[in-house]
Amino acid sequence: VQLQASGGGLVQAGGSLRLSCAAYASTFSTFAMGWYRQAPGKQRELVAETSSGGSTRYLDSVKGRFTISRDNAKMTVELQMNGLKPEDTAVYYCRGRLWPNDYWGQGTQVTVSS
User: What is the pLDDT of residues 77-87, one digit of tens each?
Assistant: First the structure.
């Protein structure tokens, strides 16, 4: 299974970005899909996740600003990020998991300037 993330970039505080992850997996609809991020010197953390059934969960600090969505027909998962803050600056990773398998995409850099 390959995951291809895109959509990062440089944006001013208060701006928006949309990350996209394309998955090449016929069983995509059965995967829990998520976005993680890792800032310099910090541990990787879960930002948002959507289950195979469509339920979602978010990091507290992004609730109300970020929205995760999936399109099983297109085999994509997206993260709409609004109201970006400098503390959102990190490398963002797409993850797909279906026990016992766990797949990660390459990271995409998000930089928010103040």
Answer: 999 999 999 99
